[in-house]
Amino acid sequence: MAEIRLTRVEQGQTKIKNVPIAVTPEGFWCCPSPVVFQKTLKSQNTLNKPKPASLPPKIPVEKKSSPVTDRKPALTRSRSAAVSDDDRKGNADTSGFSAPEAVHRVSRPKIENMPRKIAIEFGEPGTSNIKVVLLGKQGFSVKLSVHKNVLMDNSTFFANKLSDQEGSSLEIGDCEDVEIYVETVGLMYCKEMKQWLMKQNVSRVLRILKVAEFLGFKSCMQSCLEYLEAVPWVGDEEEEKVVTSILRLQSEGIGVSPVLKRVSAGVSKPHKDTLSHIIELVLRSNEERGRREMKLVVLRLLRENQSVPSHASSTDICNEIIYSSCRNCLSSLLCLFQQAAETDFTDRSVDRKEPVLKQITLEADNLSWLLEILADRQAADEFAVMWSKHQELAALHAKLPIVSRYHVSCITARLFVGIGKGELLPAKETRKLLLHTWLEPLINDYSWLKHGCGSFDRKVVEEGIGRTILTLPLEDQQSILLTWLGSFLKVGDSCPNLQRAFEVWWRRTFIRPYVEAQGSIHQQDCSITPQLGP
């Protein structure tokens, strides 16, 4: 961890606040915590609050006043790298005031009520070759120690500004959102932009997209659009913000149609062998209590690993091991389903059937655990692809008794919950195939899941299914929800309640086009009205 040196410059004293910050191998911060800016603004707003009016103090003119310098501490030069020359001159000229001058000073606004200038410096100056100064409208500035080649390679704005510039400093004034400017510049150093964006909410990504557009940061804009295309939008207000922001980009030559189709029809390196062996031991254990406890332990330890900075290669190796285990479990589960679906299976003795049914439960539980690990690591997209393509497994699902198969539907439910929460962001085709392949089997097992599975949260699952459906283009939303409506009207409470998703689709289909048409007519009327005057 390196430090942010936050220097608040006041007349008469300088305060320095050190805040921890993550640093990349290049020696630069990567997306600092917004808390620095929030605390800065909160502190500034508190200082700028108007105080209750009070009577001015009586200052007898005939009495000689003490010099101003006697009442103020000396400026500490060794700790104030951000103090300007004007501040130094102001402090040097404060001695030798006469009484009338002191009276004149009392009539001026107090220092506490004056706007504060705050300078925040990020990065490691030793490795940088240029400084970018952002001047915010909130009354503070941010000085970034950065690298010229990184800025020019990623941003057309910086490429144009710095190509012919010989100096080592660039100033950008009147920044409306300094915090997001800083994060967007930091993303130029970030190699896993998608994973970073997954930790943000829609509102923040829209702010980043706006700044990236201004800076001409094309790769960031594309990543933001991919995020917005896959993540669920919560509420009508958030949906409107996304659509409005995306429509503004249509003239930029950026592919925005995948996002608009939703509402419009037109990173220490682990030992590979050891980790693989541990996971295999847990998966193949036949002792229920030990297996359950060790799954919790391994999941917790892998979560701790996520909080420690690591190389991208080590993360890839771990994910590769987990996906290898997923493929083995899926292959085993398919073979078990094929055995259980044989016509003579029900006629077999209990001693011959029980091991197969028990192994089905075990493999389904193993897959649920592996999916949980991948979701924690923000790497479950490929699992959704694998699961959506298992049409044969889904076809065999209906041939097994519910008591033997419902554990498999728990995997489907977890995927829908993950997509609904934005924990995984599979492609549109994958989300569509997942719904077409596995929604019907889930509906068939729904009554059993509600009453026979203690960990099943009906409301969470229903919200996840609904949000997953609403991430698709409008035509696909209609097809899936009308099929669901037929099932819901037949079996009622034994079917997932997707009424909230149905209402959103209804408004998008029947109300939104009318509102847009009315807005278009209103705009035409406004453009014609001036021409009808005398």
UniProtKB/TrEMBL annotation:
<dbReference type="InterPro" id="IPR058039">
    <property type="entry name" value="At3g05675-like_ankyrin"/>
</dbReference>
<dbReference type="Pfam" id="PF25553">
    <property type="entry name" value="BTB-POZ_ANK-like"/>
</dbReference>
<comment type="function">
    <text>May act as a substrate-specific adapter of an E3 ubiquitin-protein ligase complex (CUL3-RBX1-BTB) which mediates the ubiquitination and subsequent proteasomal degradation of target proteins.</text>
</comment>
<dbReference type="InterPro" id="IPR000210">
    <property type="entry name" value="BTB/POZ_dom"/>
</dbReference>
<dbReference type="InterPro" id="IPR011333">
    <property type="entry name" value="SKP1/BTB/POZ_sf"/>
</dbReference>
<feature type="domain" description="BTB">
    <location>
        <begin position="138"/>
        <end position="229"/>
    </location>
</feature>
<feature type="compositionally biased region" description="Basic and acidic residues">
    <location>
        <begin position="60"/>
        <end position="73"/>
    </location>
</feature>
<protein>
    <submittedName>
        <fullName>BTB/POZ domain-containing protein At3g50780</fullName>
    </submittedName>
</protein>
<feature type="region of interest" description="Disordered">
    <location>
        <begin position="45"/>
        <end position="101"/>
    </location>
</feature>
<dbReference type="InterPro" id="IPR038920">
    <property type="entry name" value="At3g05675-like"/>
</dbReference>
<comment type="pathway">
    <text>Protein modification; protein ubiquitination.</text>
</comment>
<dbReference type="GO" id="GO:0016567">
    <property type="term" value="P:protein ubiquitination"/>
</dbReference>
<feature type="domain" description="At3g05675-like ankyrin-like">
    <location>
        <begin position="273"/>
        <end position="512"/>
    </location>
</feature>
<dbReference type="Pfam" id="PF00651">
    <property type="entry name" value="BTB"/>
</dbReference>
<keyword id="KW-0833">Ubl conjugation pathway</keyword>
